[in-house]
Automatic annotation (TrEMBL):
Phylogenetic classification of the source organism: Eukaryota, Metazoa, Chordata, Craniata, Vertebrata
UniProt record, GO biological process: mitochondrion distribution; muscle cell cellular homeostasis; negative regulation of autophagosome assembly; phosphatidylinositol dephosphorylation
Protein name, as recorded: phosphatidylinositol-3,5-bisphosphate 3-phosphatase
Compartments where found: Cell projection; Cytoplasm; Endomembrane system
Source organism superkingdom: Eukaryota
Keywords linked to the UniProt accession: Cell projection, Cytoplasm, Hydrolase, Lipid metabolism, Membrane, Protein phosphatase
Region (Disordered): 546-576
Species name: Oncorhynchus tshawytscha
Gene that encodes it: MTM1
Family under the similarity heading: Belongs to the protein-tyrosine phosphatase family. Non-receptor class myotubularin subfamily.
Cellular compartments per GO CC: cell projection; cytoplasm; endomembrane system; membrane
Pfam families to which the protein is assigned, alphabetical: GRAM, Myotub-related
UniProt-annotated catalytic positions: 375 (phosphocysteine intermediate)
């Protein structure tokens, strides 16, 4: 017997539609969450109830399970060291009853829990007396609170942090940093009440020559009213990245003179000869979308533009690929067929296409040509392309706080996820894993709901921002290899030969893999940094002693060939 309850996104926190699975490719295991860091109302079960966790790595483990309105916590009783599970209820996508009262076989009666973080958890209980009913009811109620008329946990949390993460992103400050507004681009508040587009933010940047009436006319010809607006501008050559949704061409090949003229205004803003439109979709999909009223910018209508299809598949294909990936990484990794199994998921192929597309966008901008990026509705593949391109072009977004602004602007603000470069990013892998984990945890208000309008005005006053956690302990998320560089464009190699699966995230639950995650290079580098700090401290002490009156004798007695402390420090710096 199998009784299923709940679906992905059923807790109202984040659905796969709002944040597509490839955010993982836009983005060490995150720190374990303690009860004191995320307070919740205790709803513990009867303490004498026996439960067995069917661990895929250690076998059947007896222990105790505790469930609050934030997490499921299990601790084994007979294993040394103890095996623990700490699962935010928001990460639970599905709960199934396993077996029935008449089921035979050991551990055949219990619960199957499917998580959104690549895990499947199985618990066995005694068959008599409906022993799983109370666990099932509590999980069902608090993993999917909106379905039961309950508040999301983020509204109940009383966490306090030193920094207020809600102040990280201020749209006008970010536009001013980019040098906006100017004589070619202006700020408009036409969407202040979300009347132009209910999934866009209230503050938009549009061509200076475009009137408010122009914007309203263009809105009628773009899917969901998501008109082309500026995301980023190159300070030197003034080329821009604009984002939008597909035009509503339809099967009859409709045209809209206002939309055509509007794209020409974008082109003219920096004198681009031909505006490049990057359509993230495969061309066959774009053509098929005509049947449902969508389409693409044809050459006959948009004569001053060139259209490039990037062949990135939609969210449904991505989900299926992720499902196949999960099947090969959890619970066990079959090493004898690893490469062929990974290839069959097509996951790395999708990553390659997204990175390749972002490189094309960045290259056009660097060459002084403005671009427009869209997919179907302009908030899944579009955000992947624009944010990755902006990461490559703008070193500010590669800092800890700049990256937070990028996510707030391109993903959260516009509705709606990387490759490693060891010295280019100020943040480390922990930040990426933490962000992905809290997409679903419902501990913070940062990723709740689908767009700015859907987040009620009290969200910021009633919930805590994820950036409050991050910015209160910045050193935990800092990359020791980081070397600040301005005006450097990053061009990753978009080749299957250079792409690897993100083991730290996708296979982190396997204890054998987890033990191998420590990077010897990073560990040695951290040790050398500590050694450098120790030498610098000693140098400072020597300099202080040299400046004292009693140091003159030592200074006069030193030989010309003796190496000074400064020389030693210089030599120590050489390997870095």
């Amino acid at each position: 017997m199998a009784c299923s309850v709940g679906v992905d996104g059923g807790n109202g926190c984040v659905s796969s539609r709002s944040f597509p699975v490839p955010l993982a490719l836009f983005l060490s295991r995150s720190p374990s969450l303690s009860f004191t860091r995320a307070p919740s109302l205790p709803l513990s079960l009867s303490p004498d109830k026996d439960i067995i966790y069917i661990c895929p790595f250690s076998g059947a483990l007896k222990g105790k399970v505790f469930i609050t309105n934030y997490r499921l916590y299990f601790k084994s009783a007979d294993a040394d060291p103890a095996v623990t599970l700490d699962v935010p209820l928001g990460a639970i996508g599905r709960v199934e009853k396993m077996g029935g009262a008449s089921s035979r076989g050991e551990n055949s009666y219990g619960l199957d829990i499917t998580c959104k973080d690549m895990r499947n958890l199985r618990f066995a209980l005694k068959q008599e007396g409906h022993s799983r009913r109370d666990i099932f009811d509590i999980l069902f109620k608090y993993a999917f609170p909106l379905s039961h008329g309950l508040l999301l946990f983020a509204y109940l949390s009383q966490e306090k942090f030193e920094e207020n993460g809600w102040s990280v992103y201020k749209p006008m400050e970010e536009f001013r940093r980019q040098g906006l507004p100017n004589d070619k681009w202006r700020v408009t508040f036409i969407n202040a009440n979300y009347e132009l587009c209910d999934t866009y933010p209230t503050i938009l940047v549009v061509p200076f020559k475009a009137t408010e009436e122009d914007l309203r006319k263009v809105c009628t010809f773009r899917s969901r009213g998501r008109i082309p607006v500026l995301s980023w501008i190159h300070r030197e050559n003034q080329a821009v990245i604009c984002r939008c949704s597909q035009p509503l061409v339809g099967m009859s090949g409709k045209r809209n003179k206002d939309d055509e003229r509007y794209l020409d205004l974008i082109r003219e803003a920096n004198g681009t000869a031909k505006l490049t439109i990057y359509d993230a979709r495969p061309s066959v999909n774009a053509v098929a979308n005509k049947a449902t009223g969508g389409g693409y910018e044809g050459d006959d209508a948009y004569q001053n533009a060139e259209l490039v299809f990037l062949d990135i598949h939609n969210i449904h294909v991505m989900r299926e690929s992720l499902k196949k990936l999960k099947d090969i990484v959890y619970p066990n990794v079959e090493e004898s067929h690893w490469l062929s199994s990974l290839e069959s998921t097509h996951w790395l192929e999708h990553i390659k296409l997204v990175i390749s597309g972002a490189i094309q966008v960045a290259d056009k901008i660097s060459g002084g040509n403005s671009v427009v990026v869209h997919c179907s509705d302009g908030w899944d593949r579009t955000a992947q392309l624009t944010s990755l391109a902006m990461l490559m072009l703008d070193s500010h977004y590669r800092t800890l706080r700049g990256f937070q602004v990028l996510l707030e602007k391109e993903w959260i603000g516009f509705g709606h996820k990387f490759a490693n470069f060891p010295t280019a990013f100020e943040f480390n892998e922990r930040l990426l894993v933490t962000i992905l984990d809290h997409l679903f945890s419902c501990r913070f208000g940062t990723f709740l709901f689908n767009c700015e309008r859907a987040r009620d005005t009290n969200l910021r006053s009633k919930t805590v921002s994820l950036w409050s956690l991050v910015n209160s302990d910045l050193s935990f998320y800092q990359n020791p290899f980081y070397t600040p560089e301005s005006n450097r464009v990053l061009y990753p190699v978009a080749s299957m030969r250079h792409l690897e699966l993100w083991v730290t995230y996708y296979i982190r639950w396997n204890p054998r893999i987890r033990q191998q995650q420590q990077s010897p290079v990073e560990q040695r580098y951290i040790e050398l940094l500590a050694l450098r700090d120790e030498y610098l401290k000693k140098l400072e002490e020597l300099q202080l002693s040299d400046s004292s009156p009693n140091s003159s004798h030592l200074s006069n007695s030193s030989t010309p060939n003796a190496a000074s402390p400064t020389q030693h420090i210089t030599h120590l710096h050489t390997p870095f």
